[in-house]
Amino acid sequence: MADPRMVKWAKALTGYSVEIQAGQVVAIVGDTIAEPLLHEIYREVVERGAHPVLLPSQRSAPATLLKLGSDVQLAYISPIERFVREEADVAIQVMAETNTRSLAGVDPARQAVYQKARRGLVETMMQRAATGAMDWTLTLYPTDAFAQDADMDTSDYTEFVLGACKLDRDDPVQAWLELKAEQQRLIDWLDGRSQVRLTGPDIDLTLSIEGRSWINSDGKRNFPSGEIFTGPVEDSVNGTIRFSFPVVTAGREIDDIRLRFEHGKVVEASASKNEDYLLQQLDCDEGARYLGEFAFGTNFDITRFTKNILFDEKIGGTVHMAVGAGYPETGSTNTSSIHWDMIADLRDGGQVDVDGEPFMRDGTFVV
């Protein structure tokens, strides 16, 4: 018997997040541990008259390649990778991990070879998404590993995930539409404005959003979502910022990140843990030291840090910004092989002013 929670989840993904149409080719990507959800997504795609292509994976495979493969093998791009990013009409990815530290022992230089080889693929997918040539969404299936990272029991973590996705509501889609309307109100206020200033504990940063577009992230490409984001003018960022939460990526945790910007570029960077990895990523290409994204978290159903960026960047009352590749639909022209989100909590003493007017105080929108 199908799990009704998985059925509701799959219907929300295929009927709201990407709105699958008959005849579309749909890539469904996820670790085999997420089989209950993958199965229901597959069923929904079939019932909608589209063509599902199920691509189950095992997380141990990338770790094996990165540890043992030659540079030639690391740079090889498989036909499956090309299909998902260059050919599929829709891509649905389900994150699922049995060990979130499986890449911790991999040499960062080898990861850089792998990332650089895929830079073109990333740019192609972003351009296709920006022009409407493809659609995609990303969600997360609760596992013991994710629960352990969040310091939670797996059953409690599962309820947390469902709540963040608004799947605990009778009508999840209506709940997302209500958040969409609230986010649009904020965007309407921001449109046409220019200068953003963030201040707070260990934060004094300015950037320009002049001429840039704000995106209403309303449970479509990220599920859950709950953010509004743009691409800051590339050479406009100046000042300093300390990120409240660690970045957890590629099996590593980088703590107490502090950056100083001059004319858009990171000119000083430090971290109390894994600083070498931070610096290696910032030096992987020219675009990695510039911001590709600036965003406000608006999902107040996410109230705790879980060491997973899909949820943490959406925490209501926070801002996040990404070094590296920007989204073309925002007007960003920054390109890079990385896109690293970093989160600053503004709920205790943080302020955001836009063109000299208050926009956020202590994590609360005041417009």
Query: How many domains in all?
Result: 2
Percentage beta strand: 25-35%
What would the average pLDDT be, to the nearest integer? 95
The whole-angstrom Rg is: 20 Å
* Percent range of helical residues: 25-40%
Tally the helices: 12
Uncertain segments are none
Instruction: Output the strand order for the largest sheet.
Output: 14-13-10-6-5-18-19-20
- Assign the structural class, choosing from mainly alpha, mainly beta, alpha/beta, alpha+beta, or little secondary structure: alpha+beta
From the spread of the alpha carbons, the general shape counts as globular
Characterize the main sheet.
8 strands, antiparallel
Task: Give the CA-CA distance, first to last residue.
Answer: 48 Å
Overall strand count: 20
Give a topology summary:
Elements: H1 4-17, E1 25-31, H2 35-47, E2 51-57, H3 60-68, H4 71-75, H5 79-87, E3 90-95, H6 108-117, H7 119-131, E4 135-140, H8 144-149, H9 154-164, H10 172-190, E5 195-200, E6 203-208, E7 215-217, E8 222-223, E9 227-230, E10 238-242, E11 247-249, E12 252-254, E13 258-262, E14 265-270, H11 275-282, E15 291-297, H12 309-312, E16 318-324, E17 339-345, E18 351-354, E19 357-361, E20 364-365
Parallel strand pairs: 1-2, 1-3, 3-4, 4-8
Antiparallel strand pairs: 5-6, 5-18, 6-10, 7-9, 9-15, 10-13, 11-12, 13-14, 15-16, 16-17, 18-19, 19-20
Helix pairs in contact: 1-2, 5-7
